[in-house]
Records
---
Amino acid sequence: MIDFLQLAVQGIALGGIYALIALGFVIVYKATQVINFAQGELVLLGAYLVYAFNQTALPFVASVALAAVVMAGIGWAIERTILRRMVGRPVFAVVMITIGLAIVVRQLVAAVWGFEDRLLGEPWAASRIQLGDLGVNVTSVVTIATTGVLLLLFFVFFRFTRAGIGMRATAIDQEAALAVGIPVRGVFAQAWMIAGAIATIAGVLLVAFPATLHPAVGFTALRAFPAAIVGGLDSPGGAVIGGVLVGLVEVLVQGYQPQVAPWLGNNFHVAAAYLLMIVVLVVRPYGLFGTRVVERV
Amino acid sequence: MNGPRSRRAAPSPLAALPVLRRIDGLRTSYADELALIRGAGGWAALAALAALYVATPLVIDDFWLSVLNFTAIAAIAAIGLNLLTGFTGQVSLGHAFFIGLGAYTAGYLGGDLRLPVIVWLPAAGIFGAAVGLLVGPFALRLRGLYLAIVTLGLVFLGEHVFLNLRQITGGPQGRAVPAPMIGEINLADLGTSLGLPLTREQSFFLFVVPLVALAAIAAKNIVRSRPGRAFQAIRDREIAAAIIGVDRARYKVGAFAVSSFYAAAAGALYGSYLRYITPGQFDLLPSIQYVAMIIVGGIGTVYGSIAGAFFLVLIPRVVEALSPAIPFVSRSATSSGLTLFVLNQLIFGALIVFFLVFEPSGLAGIWSRLRTYVKTWPFSY
């Protein structure tokens, strides 16, 4: 039982990271109808920026804040210089552009910082909290708390702020939004800025203890895809639930599959997330909480 | 095409002016529109291609022949992807999975069961098509990006199977794939098996290029006949296509099957050319490379697929050849900084972005603009 609890906490913490990455997908998708395949690379770049700022004797929290601001600027720049040109072009073309960007960003990171493993230098480092028999990494606690706070902020943002309501309106109907005076371009820019900032936070939690900083962590974001899809691409709440679900499935499969079903092969937990995604999509083509697209002729 | 004969036969007045017709490339009848080879120029081009096929292996050295051989294999896969993505509008990020499927099938049938190439090459294609038929139904239920992500999931599920089905795939260490053999004749090495004065690369070139021609002609024929028009109708306006009577389920699943056939056949050739395959060769990056090929070459054109394949196979070789002249590039694989691999990937990513932003119709678009310019010179549209 204590094993199960231990795995469950681990799964929820991992799920929290996936949820933060998935929130980045969701916010860009909600505003611009584009899946940003470069989100994982924004996460990577954000984490390296935090590392770089932290190296210059800046306090950790200030490094994270500064990196988040810089990443928001990078998100804005990507939207303004590249994706703005693609408005009205086929979705497929825009998605491939983000894939191209992902490759460029990943290689730039590799070219600047190289392929060595690095420690992020988070202040809580390897400390653990002991609750009876249950040991929990501080990173896990921080992750779960951050995810909760950010989800609350998203809820407030989309429900009560002008910008958030404008973003929802844009998501539903761009022309109608323009007609009532919502600056749709501004909304696109905001969405990318938020995606950049949230990528930084996800990056910090992704590479904090027990993980390390390495160019390959950008690929971890590929496992946040199932999270975003399972939850529904346009639902922030769905992203969090999808993230936690995928995290739990991954950790529990990793924990139990070798004993219960060894015939499924090594590292089945990597494939399990995608299997879960495909099963969910067969039953619900728009994810658990996604909006069903109604086609009109 | 189904109209009364008399209406179809009625020539346009422009057809009476053969000079104008040739200069302007105007199509004056359905038969002309559908023709694979148009006029004397078309026959001349065909003759030139045939001459090139014979002359190339004799003139070019083995290094560049290997570039062409890889191009030929990639071109077959890219044509398949273009049928699915370019003509039917179904985005697939899982093309490498089907290529891997073909390669392992070839390895199993040719290596473990010792079948000849004329059996394992079509069999690999058919097996790929059968798996494509299983995936196809997802395309019915899912739209656009959701479908792209399911095909992405396919790559990871496929990699898991390739890594773990050790009896057939050899697991992470990979497995050997036989050369294309018919009896005792090794089609990829006519020098040793028949005593002809040909190297491995020359033999493989002579073996694989007719297959590319076959693949291209078959694709062209699909595109200009009923299924191809159905594919394009679905791509352009799915609901309208359904209303005029296009069976969406049939043609979408069909497009997946055809494209997977191409991919798996190309995979079988790829394995047979390299003689050894590992699961890492069929993961996400190659899938993206095939999408990049059709973007760079030209979405929705058959010859563009071949051009794109050539371009993307060529670039890493050119970068490698030029790298001593480029500052800051370190040539050792282990060092950090700007390595050859990093530089290649940077160029690759930038190419995708550049073509999509500035030249969305790809090399095929550049070519057709160039043709129009030359044909209409000194006038311009």
---
Amino acid sequence: MTTPSTTGNAPGQLLRELLRDRPATLSALFLMLLIFAAAFAPLVAPHDPATQALRARLDPPFWLAGGSLDHILGTDNLGRDVLSRIIYGARTSLTVGLSVVAIAGTFGVTIGLVAAYVGGRVDSFVMSWVDTQLSFPDLLLALTVLTVLGSSPMTVVVILSIGGWMVFARMTRGIVKSTRNEGYVEAAELVGCSVPRIIFVHILPNLAAPLSTLLILEFARIVLAEAALSFLGMGIQPPATSWGLDIAVGKDHIFGAWWLVTFPGAAIALTILSANLLAAWVRTTADPQEREKRFARSAAGRQMRAARRIEA
Amino acid sequence: MANLVIRRLLHGIVVVLGVMTIVFFVTRIIGDPVQIMLPVEATEAERALLRNQLGLDRPILEQFLQFAGNTLTFNFGDSLWQRRPAMDIVLQRLPMTALLTAAGIGAAILLSIPLGIVAALRPDGIVDRTTVVASLAGLSMPQFWLGLLLIILFGVKLGWLPTSGARSPAHIVLPAVTLALPSLARLAMVVRTAMIDEMNRQYIKVVRAKGLKRARVIGVHALRNASVPILTLSGWEIIGALAGNVVVVESIFAWPGLGLTVMQSIERQDLILLQAVVFTVAVMAVCINILIDIAHRAIDPRVNA
């Protein structure tokens, strides 16, 4: 046995394992806090993100001279509350990130599955399509398309989805191709299981772990991409809020008001960092080889090796 | 070898044609270039003139063939903004982007190799942990935010470095560092992982048992075998910088290269100049990709894909 057997249900066991990994626990907590703040933004945010206050323009955070607890993280050039804008900005980042990952993931997994299952010419056509599209200068093409079409949250989601499905297709195809040759899949085919049954019961469960890792990593990449597009003025447009957009505003006041750039950027960085750490945890937890290494390093592993030495 | 080069060249041609077709489709069919490029108050005669200049009044297939012919010969026409051939502007700005990319990504590659090796020699040691944590932090920061933080620190608070333009050698420092840091983080992680993998192989045990000097074991035997993933990622970092990251970095620091040109042509709705930059960058990316594949093959004869 490489893992200590634990009693209880699967979600409970997963939670116990998560709690043992401190960075992953903190990351999960941060992401949950973010989702909560975004979902209940009107209740959580101290101010309306669009309300301007001409007398409270460019107020610093509360711990600096001139700051007040009314605006904990200060105000921008129009007197809007920075913290409230960050909370509302989380809505944009999460919505765009989750929508793109859902669309690109569904499309990519389907295409990869079809390519691997049909094989032959379809497979090589799909894979060379994937290779070709992966070689495109995607940011430049996105900027060109947005210049022509004009940007809205919808166009941003569509463009990022069109540029993001390939990794899912490639991963799905690889895993499906290799599991199709496994003994248990051949056995299922021999006893006459239907194709959908083979796909959904025998092949797709192998996808769960790598797909969850990839979904989290792609989510992080998309949040960064949306922030970059909005920062360049080609993504989310005012009066909507977005972290990238707020940093672009802060850039014009960088010589006097450092907090306008620092705080929304820190929100992005923490989100990406949490997603990366959580993805790393999912990957090592779901991979039997990684679990073995982790167990070998743990106290229980050392005890087991010591016990073996004594026996020998 | 010849087979590989031909296959990669074909792939490159498909990519270039693909980018060209997308640009045509988006600018001519989904959008109306005349609408985008001319101001709202332009007269009907001005519109008709531009429409005629761009050949928009002809059948779509003829337009596409003409567009393809012009694009593939780098003849994009005059930039609306500067009233001179768009390709002249691209060629004039290209050296600045090349310089910035060479400085930034070059520094990232040169620093990542010793850093990754030192980290890999003692996995879980102090250098290793610091490298991993710093890399994770570097990977999580948006590049444009990193650049602005560097401006706040070194430009505003300390006043050590210039933050805008390219008038003196000191002007390249902040943009190059901004371009370098995320790449350095990714490269250091890859060097580290590749070196840890190689150091655990049997042949390393053999050469050590033979009594080879440690420096030779690491520098010649392990590093040579670890160089394939390092080379691949280095190439991707150069392509990633040219095909996107310089847009962000150059627009923050007003560095007069291709990335700044992209933003300027978007501001001025100059689709001709924008197309010229996008297409040139796509061709450069394809060429670098082919070079990586050839170098790959030269280092590792086992590679045949």
